[in-house]
Amino acid sequence: MFKKSVRNNELKKHNIISRKKKLLLSIGTFIVLLLSITIGYLTHLYNKTEEIITESHEEVGREEEKSELRDKPVDPIDHNVSVLFIGLDTGQARSYGEASRSDALLLATFNKKQNTAKLLSIPRDTYVYVPEAGYSTKINHAHFLGGAKATIETVEEFLNVPIDYYVSVNFDAFIEVVDSLNGIYYDVPFEFNEMDSNDNKDAIHLSPGYQLLTGEETLALARSRKYDNDIERGKRQQEIVKRIAEKAASPSSAFKLGDVLESVGGNLKTNLKFDDLKSFLTYGTNKNFSIETINLDGKGGRMNDGLWYFQVNEESQAKIERELRNHLDLPIYIRESSDLANDHDEEIIY
User: Quick one: fold of 61-340?
Assistant: First the structure.
């Protein structure tokens, strides 16, 4: 009787150990599968990103493919660099091709030692000299007159800051990126009606308050300028870009990045190469990385041609120039007042 009891206890222990082994094996197998899926997914994202950047690559067309304000080409791995983000007023409903205007211009400078970025919004109606045209007009006309190259040259002429890289996206990319992330939360400052990306009048209606926005709603909020001014519009665009970046970098969006990449493909042009893009990861993976938003001061009004322009204050322009050149670790010098003037002697009429 005693021997039988001992044998039963041993069988129970053996069964418990067997069940534990099976459980551990199952857990181990599950973890291996998860790791395999994760590695496979990351590999897919890596390959997909490389494919999109390769297909979207388009050189500016400059000598040595560098800014005239640089002595030699730069490498984002070793140097502080700048990136001009160009939001185009095109999409499926607006197939303008190169004959499109920039609806948003955001200039970002990156400093490796400080692990910081500065983000400047340039109002679309800013009155500037456009080298491609040989006269002064709204800065958003530069892209219409000569694409990304003319836009880059205009911004460099305006701010005396080298533009090393550019990224241009259209309405479709913006909308689809936000929708791929299941929207973003934003505190809408006022009630407004705005057209959608297909130019349907008053198709978008938002009430004030913190809320989840779709891609179309986010685009409408970023574009709207009837309810405040170009400076506030630029600030909203800066904040929206930061919200999108934060949402994309959050753990909850990890498995949505494939959809984000799909939405960008075909709607993107850039002179960044894949290896260049990888070097920017050092900023994104550092928890101490910070983005500071800066803005130009000025005033708006109509000129002799009857059109409305935003004219930047010369002191503000000089301040931003110094700040950005300093952030890029470039020598700082003060340009003559005549060099800072956008045009010879034309003034805004109030």
Answer: Aminopeptidase (3.40.630)
